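User: Could you write out the 3D structure of this protein bound to S-adenosylmethionine? I've included everything you need below.
Assistant: Certainly. Input first, then the structure.
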Amino acid sequence: MHKSVMCEEVLDLLNPKKGQTILDCTVGGGGHASMILERILPGRLIGLDQDEEALSVAKDLLSKFDSASYSLIHENYRNIDNIFSRDNIDKVDGVLFDLGISSFQLDNARRGFSIKGDGPLDMRMDKRSSLTAYDLVNRMRVDEIENILRSFGEERYARRIARSIGEIRKRTPIATTGQLREIVERSTPAKYKRYKIHPATRTFLALRIAVNHELEHLEYALEIAIKHLAVGGRICVISFHSLEDRIAKNEFRRFKQSKILKVLTKKPLRPSHRETIENPRSRSAKLRAAEKIKSEDEPENII
Ligand SMILES: C[S@@+](CC[C@H](N)C(=O)[O-])C[C@H]1O[C@@H](n2cnc3c(N)ncnc32)[C@H](O)[C@@H]1O
């Protein structure tokens, strides 16, 4: 069962109110969306997800609400501008990004995200896109693979792993998550296997970020989302990776400097101890929030 992360903290910081319109950029299984809808009805929730399977889970969960109060849209959040102009939406009162993947994506071996089980090396959140982890692992130059593992996965054995991939694929294509997991296990030192996380965790994470262009999309989408936030509206970002958190922090800082945002979380909020016990996935979560205090078109007060 998928558990939404930091629910109370999100409600507290997003502060959704009756009658408002809220944009949930990563609707996933619909957990946060459902909580938000309870607060805003008769308002409206716009839920985006690039994963069709996620949207069907959300659809089931949200079916208890009046269908006119929400829309679930199969889109990448980088396309907020297009979605809004198509649906005649200008401003929203709140925006939520709950990044990464959900546990039902991770737990389904067929999707290729998981180091457990065996499945095709896919890792696409959006099945409409053509690039898969198979393409990266089998077709990309070895030094580029190394670079991805190092920069997105902070993998200290990036060179060794990339070289092993290069050797093995000369003989046979690397087609499954099981094959990749074994290659990483064999090319990293024995002591790596005694660590808390599996030796292939960072490799899988790095490939997933690259396949889905996660960091580029986030940076681009945050700026657009802030543009569509009404003055007084709030934005919350939950991240699970230091590079994502850095993007959120820097974007908030940039808009703070131009006096468009007030940052509500000096340091990111972390889940409670209780939550980390009940839901281990929440352990690495960081929540940042900001409030829009001035519109982009308003001139700065110079006196
Ligand atoms: C952690 S889950 C969200 C869980 C959700 N908040 C809940 O309570 O159930 C993240 C979701 O974001 C989606 N996602 C990731 N990147 C996306 C993007 N660029 N555009 C749209 N959806 C994205 C994933 O497909 C996944 O379903």
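The mean pLDDT is 95.
User: Perfect, thank you.
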